[in-house]
Here is the input.
Amino acid sequence: MKTIILSICILISALNLHAQDLFGSLTGKYANQEGFSATHLTNDLFDLYLKKKQVEPGSAVYETLKKLNRITVISQNSFGAQENQGKMKETLSAVQDEIMNYYKDPAFSLLKTENRMGEVIKVYLKKNGDKVNTLSMVSSSPTRLTMVELSGDIDLTRVSDISGALNVRGLENLNKINGTSNTFVFQGVDMNQLEDQRIFWEQYSDNLKDLPYPQMNIEMLRRQKELTEKHNEMTEKHREIVIKQQELANKYGRQPIFLSTPGDTNVVYYINDKKVDSEKFKSINPEDIESVSVIKAEQGKKNKKSEIRIITRKK
Here is the structure.
C-alpha cells in the first residue's frame, strides 16, 4: 500500500514538474517580451481568489477548484506599437511552436480540434486509468495564442465554471472547451483584440507624458480611448445579436430569417399559401411554425421576386 501511495505521489509530482518546466522555459525566454503574460497558481493560492470572489464553500465551483492541484495560463499576442509588430509576431510563432511541441508528448491525447472564425482550438487530455488528471486548451489565431492547463481530479462538465470564480485573464477561454464561448468576430475585429487594445492604451499613457507636447498627446489618447470604448460597445451589441441568432438556430434547426420594416420589396411573403404583408409575417408565433421555405428569384429575370413561405402547425 505504501508503495502504491508513493508511486501516485511521484506521478503527480512528475506531472507538475513537467508543466513547471514549460512554464519556466517560456517565462525565462519571453517574460520581458511585449504581449506575453503567464500565471501559475497552485491549490494553496485558490483560497485567496475564492474569498475575493465570495465563492460559497460547498458550491459546485468551490468543490471543482478544491480538486485541482494547479492552473497554468500562458498567452502571447502580437498587438502593440507598429515598430514592434515584426518582433511580436516572431515571439508569437516561437511560443506557439514550443507549446505545441509540449503536447506532442504521447502521454497527451487530443480530445477536440476546431477551427472557428480563424481561431484554432485544441483540447488535450492526460489520463490515469479512467480519471482525467490534466486538461489543456490551446487557442490560437494570427494575433493571439492562449494556453490554459488544469491539473488534478478534473470533471470535464464543470471546468467552464472556473473562469467565473477566479479573476485570472485567459481563463475565460475554458468556455471554448464545450463550445460555450461568447467570443465572436465582427467586421474583422474580435473581442480579444479589443481587450488587447484597451490594455495597450493603459500601458502607453504614461509614456506619452514624456514626449513633446504631453498635453496634446494625452488628449489624443483620451479621444482614441473613447473611440475604442464606443467600438467595444457596438461590438458587444452585435455579439448579443449573434448569440440570439445561434439560440434560434439551435432551437429550430435552421438559421433565423430577420425582416426589416416595411420589408424587402423584392420579397413576397406567404403564410399557408396566402400572400401577406411583412408586418403580419413578422408577427407570427415561432411556436406555430411547422416549416419555412425560401425560393430565390432567378438571376437575370425581370419582375421576378423571391418568396418566403411559412406553413403553420394544424391546431
User: Anything to note?
Assistant: Confidence is low (pLDDT under 50) at residues 1-17, 180-191. The radius of gyration is 26 Å.
